[in-house]
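Example 3.2
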Amino acid sequence: MPHDALLTLARDVAVEAGELAARRRAEGVEIADHKSSPVDVVTLADRETEHLIRELLADARPNDGFLGEEGGEAGGSSGLTWVVDPIDGTVNYLYGIPHWAVSIAVVEGDPDPLTWRALAGCVTNPVTGEIYTASDAGGAFSGNQQLRVAEPASLAQSLIGTGFSYDAIVRGEQGEFVARLLPLVRDIRRFGTASLDLCAVATGRLNGYFERGLKPWDHAAAALVAREAGAVVTGLGGAPASAEFLLAAPAELASALERELANRVA
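Structure, written as tokens:
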């Protein structure tokens, strides 16, 4: 299946899933469970939305694998795996903050960000109607508009995004680090939805973004969007982006930011 067909499928499924999640949000949110901590929630809508995505993808591509935030991993025979976050930014979703997303990517190889090759992905914010898409070597788009990262900026003139762990101890360490970084940059933003933060780098709304502890489904689609828009997406020391660390920024800023981060990340 060509990348454009995979991308069309990712987009169509993400839009339909987003419509379901938005309806459920309007009806009222019910917490179903907790994940890493009592403040890291799962809603019934997370589970229902992922179930819909899984069914739609299985109908279209029955031989592909699946890796979802709520439903775990299922292998396939095609060599392709769909990596899905049904509602990225669940706490925003819970509170009615209009900054959450559905994220769907298809990757080649094992569903491991250290080794996979992302082929196509879609991130959509159903509240704003923004739809971000990208395919390998095919560019990144918001609707029909091709995306490019912001013009190069110095570290001191850069608006940087980040995120925090739901583990209280780790969050405290991250807060201390951000306090040390803050005087070195224009300012720091924490929006609470990693996939949309990475897309913000692609659109130029952020100059750069970094975070520790991201899961594969948090960045599978959005890292491809950022990369195809011209960002360097990497871990520390040239390692692939992973749960250990992810940094996304234009090349010159990425180098400057990584020099600071390498000395400061615990």
